[in-house]
């Protein structure tokens, strides 16, 4: 297949290129840029020297239509609402890494993103690309809205419990930590070295745009869930997300019962690994891979369940999951191009 990446000069785009470059069903990758047309991608990314030697193309719907079968939009919010519809109408598959098409209610998008929402007709066509729980819809989708990085870790960590009726549904607290690559390639006063090295910050308290995305899915899975508490933090590392999730059990349970619930839920999922008793995952254990690793415990004293869910934000939290969706949409074996052993140490 021939694939295009819009936003190839960003971190999500570069990771798509790294992974698609060794995908056996991808014959050609065209890179599009809104600001660096005519430049070679190696000028932006010297690590691609002698591996990928191509010029960035301007984004033009007629050439996109001629050149590619699938377009990955690795662009900031606001861009996909402009391009996804046109590209789909031109007959290409669209996989959007941004948050533009994830929220079903445009007024919720406008309240949290503080910008105009995409047209409802476009949002309705997009399938939320969380393969472990939405695989059947992804198979026939033409437009995928790829989940956010924090929602991926949080939803995979919460799904078995929320679907089980074992918990107090108003008790969910998510304490999430991310590396700085989650903020993209452009440096900012929040993420640059002097600000982040030897530092640990909470940000966007009670107002992160991933709150409604997480709540939307949890509510779809169980109508008893309405709101959650979610607080994101930045940690001085490049890749990785850890979501530590606290939930009150509705009645007495055991760690063994909970682990069995998770093992059963993810028995056939190649990218979700449930840790054995007493093991809790660290971000480095999924670094550079498409895995989501989950550990859990039950505190008999407080009746609280703690779930620890880790991903690499650029892989399972963005580009790897996008390729997992690409594989499912096209009937390829789901792990194609994603058989990545985490880099350790
Ligand atoms: N980084 C991460 O861990 C994750 C990112 N995401 C989402 O994926 C998307 C990409 O993120 P990321 O790669 O980190 O961001 P970056 O800021 O690193 O890259 C975004 C790219 O978008 C392109 N771009 C900017 N403005 C426009 C425009 N008006 N029209 C077309 N292209 C534009 C730019 O490329 P150029 O100037 O060459 O056009 C830029 O390099 C975002 O929506 C992000 O929220 C989702 C999950 C995780
Ligand atoms: C560390 C950091 O800044 N992370 C980003 C999340 C990136 C992401 O997943 O954003 P989208 O929903 O737009 O895809 C943030 O908090 O906004």
UniProtKB/TrEMBL annotation:
Pathway named in the protein's UniProt entry: Amino-acid biosynthesis; L-arginine biosynthesis; N(2)-acetyl-L-ornithine from L-glutamate: step 3/4
InterPro entries in the cross-refs: AGPR, AGPR_AS, AGPR_dimerisation_dom, AGPR_type-1, NAD(P)-bd_dom_sf, Semialdehyde_DH_NAD-bd
Subcellular localization(s) per the UniProt record: Cytoplasm
Catalytic activity: N-acetyl-L-glutamate 5-semialdehyde + phosphate + NADP(+) = N-acetyl-L-glutamyl 5-phosphate + NADPH + H(+)
Gene (UniProt): argC
Record-annotated active site: 149
Protein name (Swiss-Prot/TrEMBL): N-acetyl-gamma-glutamyl-phosphate reductase
Swiss-Prot/TrEMBL keywords: Amino-acid biosynthesis, Arginine biosynthesis, Cytoplasm, NADP, Oxidoreductase
Cited function: Catalyzes the NADPH-dependent reduction of N-acetyl-5-glutamyl phosphate to yield N-acetyl-L-glutamate 5-semialdehyde.
């Amino acid at each position: 297949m021939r694939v295009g990446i819009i936003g190839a000069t960003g971190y999500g785009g570069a990771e798509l290129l790294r992974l698609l470059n060794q995908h056996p069903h991808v014959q050609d990758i065209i890179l599009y840029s809104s600001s660096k047309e005519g430049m070679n991608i190696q000028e932006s990314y010297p690590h691609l020297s002698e591996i990928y030697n191509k010029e960035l193309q301007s984004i033009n719907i007629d050439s996109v239509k001629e050149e590619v079968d699938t377009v990955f939009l690795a662009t900031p919010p606001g861009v996909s609402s402009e391009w996804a519809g046109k590209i789909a109408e031109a007959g290409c598959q669209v996989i959007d890494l941004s948050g533009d098409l994830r929220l079903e209610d445009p007024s919720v998008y406008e309240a949290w993103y503080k910008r105009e929402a995409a047209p409802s007709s476009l949002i309705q066509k997009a399938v939320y690309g969380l393969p472990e729980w939405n695989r059947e819809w992804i198979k026939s989708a033409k437009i995928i809205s790829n989940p956010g990085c924090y929602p991926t870790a949080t939803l995979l960590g919460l799904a078995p419990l929320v679907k089980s009726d074992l918990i107090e549904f108003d008790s969910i607290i998510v304490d999430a930590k991310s590396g700085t690559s989650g903020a993209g390639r452009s440096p900012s006063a929040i993420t640059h070295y002097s600000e982040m090295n030897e530092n640990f910050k909470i940000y966007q308290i009670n107002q992160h745009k991933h709150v409604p995305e997480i709540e939307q899915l949890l509510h779809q899975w169980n109508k008893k869930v309405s709101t959650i508490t979610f607080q994101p933090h930045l940690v001085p590392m490049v890749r990785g997300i850890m979501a530590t999730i606290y939930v009150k059990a509705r009645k007495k349970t055991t760690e063994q019962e909970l682990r069995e619930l998770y093992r059963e839920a993810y028995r056939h999922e190649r990218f979700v690994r449930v840790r054995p008793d007493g093991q809790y995952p660290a971000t480095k254990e999924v670094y550079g891979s498409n895995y989501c690793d989950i550990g859990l415990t039950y505190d008999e004293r407080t009746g609280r369940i703690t779930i620890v869910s880790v991903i690499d934000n650029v892989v399972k939290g963005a580009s790897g999951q996008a390729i997992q969706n690409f594989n499912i949409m096209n009937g390829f074996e789901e792990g194609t191009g994603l058989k990545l052993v985490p880099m350790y140490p």
